[in-house]
Write a structure and sequence with these properties.
It is built from two helices and seven strands; from the N terminus they run βββββββαα. Helices cover 30% and strands 46% of the residues. It has a seven-stranded mixed β-sheet. A hairpin with a 2-residue loop joins β1 and β2. It folds into two domains: 82 residues, ATP Synthase, domain 1 (Sandwich), CATH 2.60.15; 51 residues, Single alpha-helices involved in coiled-coils or other helix-helix interfaces. The radius of gyration is 16 Å and the shape is elongated.
């Protein structure tokens, strides 16, 4: 076991992760990044997508929806609008949300002005991220 970095994941509902980890991988607005112990100070906005942390070879994926990541000292903090573990994701609900968002985007492409294209795109990104994290969790046996 090498050095670890403290991971804190906080949503408006409160802290959902507070533990020492080997590595954290996430999707920033400027690209994907990984954080390990002794990382330089760092600040990034996050895309809707996945965040994965690893402890002793065990990977734990999460769906993250908007927020920030800050690395300072030996701690990495994710302040997120929403985060979900793969085991908490309702796959049928995520599939339904994906299909609904795709229908709305198709309507928007037909110049239906009642459809908010940005909202539909964000809904689609969240649904796809949820499905990816649920699948990652299933593969990891979680």
């Amino acid at each position: 076991m090498g050095q670890r970095i403290r991971l804190e994941v906080v949503t408006p509902a409160g802290a959902i992760v507070d533990k020492d980890v080997d590595i954290v991988n996430a999707q920033g607005q400027g690209g994907d990044f990984g954080i390990m112990a002794n990382h330089e100070p760092f600040l990034s906005t996050l895309r809707i997508g996945t965040m994965v942390y690893e402890v002793d070879g065990k990977r734990t994926p999460m769906m993250v929806s908007g927020g920030f990541c800050e690395v300072s000292g030996e701690k990495v903090t994710f302040l997120l609008e929403n985060a979900e573990f793969g085991s908490d994701i309702d796959v049928k609900r995520a599939m339904d949300a994906k299909e609904r968002a795709e229908r709305r985007l198709a309507q928007a492409a037909q110049k239906d002005e009642s459809i908010n294209r940005l909202r539909a795109e964000s809904a689609l990104q969240r649904a796809v991220a949820r499905l990816k994290v649920a699948d990652m969790s299933k593969v990891a046996g979680m």
